[in-house]
Inverse folding.
């Protein structure tokens, strides 16, 4: 059975706290696993969350601040220690190539796995598979930062009432799906487009065109909300979003499930992020991320 869910490994901004680890998020997408922004302690959090090195097919780093990348060394070495049998691809800003190389070879270890490097240098598609297209968009932060978006290809949903109206049943249904036409009846006559699911991951950034492009029509948007609205000036100065800003993006983009994360240690009450998100007018499904929580991608 296919599984599409977000496994939250860490939610802290800048420094870990007693209750929040550095960032880390694993997206399970059917048989694929994409690890986003492995901060310090990600290996330990994977163990606690039941995530294995074998679950990782791609690593996507938004930028090279430590809370989003210091866990790379341990994760890469764990992938090699476990001799993961499939290729793993790493995406990260090309301008941070030297940081990636330092983290990849921070200590001595035996390389047993083919780790492909696919740096991001501009907006656009990074990978196209049968299951999804992975895109990147430039964000606005003091260091170069990219957000990521996963888009499933559109499919078709066969409608039983239309099949019945045309007298098509049994093996003929499969034949029509394979061949596209049967006895003058086309697949379009008995089906409708089933929109592919969309997942967006937006970390450290101010409001910018990239944020809106990534969020547009997303079934799930994982987005930083480092600050509360009363500290909007701090957010802008340091290249971050507030809870209200993030929720307004989701509201305008038609997001179905909003996941707020990357919280500053200055705040002790997570409920205030939810209150401000609702005050901004977002009325969809909302999660205030906590370490080790699992959030299902909304069903089609």
């Amino acid at each position: 059975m296919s599984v599409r869910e977000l496994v939250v490994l860490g939610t802290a901004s800048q420094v870990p706290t007693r209750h929040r680890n550095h960032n880390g998020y694993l997206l399970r997408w059917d048989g694929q696993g994409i690890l986003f922004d492995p901060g310090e302690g990600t290996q330990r959090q994977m163990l606690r969350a039941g995530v294995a090195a074998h679950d990782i097919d791609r690593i996507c780093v938004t930028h090279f601040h430590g809370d989003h990348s210091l866990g790379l060394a341990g994760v890469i070495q764990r992938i090699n220690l476990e001799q993961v049998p499939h290729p793993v691809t790493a995406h990260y800003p090309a301008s941070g190539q030297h940081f990636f190389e330092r983290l990849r070879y921070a200590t001595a270890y035996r390389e047993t796995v083919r780790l492909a490097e696919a740096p991001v240098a501009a907006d656009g598609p990074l990978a196209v598979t049968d299951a999804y297209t992975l895109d990147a968009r430039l964000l606005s932060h003091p260091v170069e930062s990219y957000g990521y978006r996963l888009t499933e290809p559109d499919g078709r949903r066969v409608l039983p009432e239309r099949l019945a109206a045309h007298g098509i049943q049994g093996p003929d249904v499969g034949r029509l799906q394979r061949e596209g036409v049967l006895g003058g009846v086309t697949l379009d006559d008995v089906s409708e487009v089933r929109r592919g699911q969309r997942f967006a991951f937006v970390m450290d950034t101010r409001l910018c065109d990239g944020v809106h492009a990534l969020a547009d029509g997303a079934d799930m948007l994982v987005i930083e909300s480092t600050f509360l609205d009363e500290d909007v000036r701090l957010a802008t100065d340091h290249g971050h979003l507030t809870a209200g800003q993030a929720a307004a993006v989701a509201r305008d983009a038609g997001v179905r499930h909003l996941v707020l994360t990357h919280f500053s240690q200055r705040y002790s009450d997570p409920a205030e992020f939810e209150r401000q998100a609702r005050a901004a007018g977002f009325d969809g499904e909302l999660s205030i991320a906590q370490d080790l929580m699992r959030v299902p991608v909304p069903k089609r």
Summary: The two ends are 15 Å apart (CA to CA). The chain is about 25% helix and 25% strand. The chain has a mean pLDDT of 96.
